[in-house]
């Protein structure tokens, strides 16, 4: 079976969450938080843009680096989505092949792509996570250690949430391991956790749900870890089963020695599918 020829329509999340270009950013934050996909398509009849968790968090820390006065917060929350969306995003069509779209996502560092019909109407969205399903039809040939990131940035549990978000934005990370004074991993903070906290701030109209909150109050624990000797196929299955975006690789002292993420597994899949195509001559 040539897994790379799987049609996108069989992998995509159908009936995606959408916004109108003039909808307020507050609605984008609500939808990103509620639907848990990390991005929202702009354009109900024709795709014109995309708003991601990263876009929203980048705006928040840019406009409110040390807290957010009410007047500035209103300007941020009620600004139209069209002012901050990624315009004319790359899209996939329902009958595109999986390998073709993986090529695009890996080469351009995309975490997702809207899926459209011939009229450019939104029909679905495909993220890194959906492609991990393809591993079930591939032989076990590569291990986590070949694709894991070994240089991992960490943060102290006492750091404020907005500082952690700023670091994620600057370094292009979606998650950061949280360590204690001895450098042992005690939790993980993700962009999703941050947007949930900000959505709570909006709902309750209480800045303390985001600004000034310590990472230790928001982080998830215990941290899920994996052996570097695990096959990437099994790692992908575990991420899907546990509905997580990464696994830590820990040494014997509980310190982080690596991380394997959905992104890393997409890159591994990209490599394996190209190897398969070369062997079959397709």
UniProtKB/TrEMBL annotation:
PROSITE patterns: CBS. Residues 12-66, 85-144, 148-208, 219-278 form the CBS domain. Coiled coil: none annotated. Gene3D superfamilies: CBS-domain. Keywords: CBS domain. It comes from the Archaea. PANTHER family: CBS DOMAIN-CONTAINING PROTEIN, CBS DOMAIN-CONTAINING PROTEIN CBSX3, MITOCHONDRIAL. This is CBS domain-containing protein. It comes from Sulfuracidifex metallicus DSM 6482 = JCM 9184.
């Amino acid at each position: 079976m040539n897994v790379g020829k799987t049609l996108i329509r069989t992998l995509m999340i159908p009936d995606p969450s959408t916004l109108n270009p003039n909808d307020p950013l507050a609605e984008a934050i609500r939808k990103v938080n509620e639907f848990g996909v990390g991005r929202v398509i702009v354009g109900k009849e024709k795709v014109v843009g995309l708003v991601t968790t990263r876009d929203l968090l980048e705006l928040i820390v840019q406009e409110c680096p040390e807290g957010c006065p009410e007047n500035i917060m209103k300007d941020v929350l009620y600004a139209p989505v069209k002012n901050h969306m990624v315009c004319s995003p790359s899209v996939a069509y329902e009958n595109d092949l999986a390998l073709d779209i993986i090529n695009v996502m890996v080469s351009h560092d995309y975490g997702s792509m809207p899926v459209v019909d011939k009229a450019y109407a939104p029909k679905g969205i495909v993220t890194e996570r959906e492609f991990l399903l393809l591993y079930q039809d591939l032989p076990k040939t590569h291990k986590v250690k070949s694709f894991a990131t070994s240089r991992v940035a960490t943060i102290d549990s006492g750091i404020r949430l907005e500082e952690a978000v700023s670091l994620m934005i600057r370094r292009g990370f979606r998650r950061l391991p949280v360590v204690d004074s001895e450098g042992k991993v005690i939790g993980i903070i993700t962009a999703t956790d941050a947007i949930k906290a900000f959505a709570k701030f909006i709902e309750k109209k209480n800045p303390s749900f985001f600004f000034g909150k310590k990472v230790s109050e928001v982080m998830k624990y215990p941290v899920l870890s994996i052996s570097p000797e695990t096959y990437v196929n099994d790692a992908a299955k575990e991420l899907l089963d546990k509905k997580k975006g990464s696994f830590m690789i820990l040494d014997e002292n509980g310190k982080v020695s690596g991380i394997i993420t959905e992104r890393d597994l997409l890159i591994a899949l990209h490599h394996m599918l190209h190897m398969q195509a070369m062997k079959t001559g397709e």
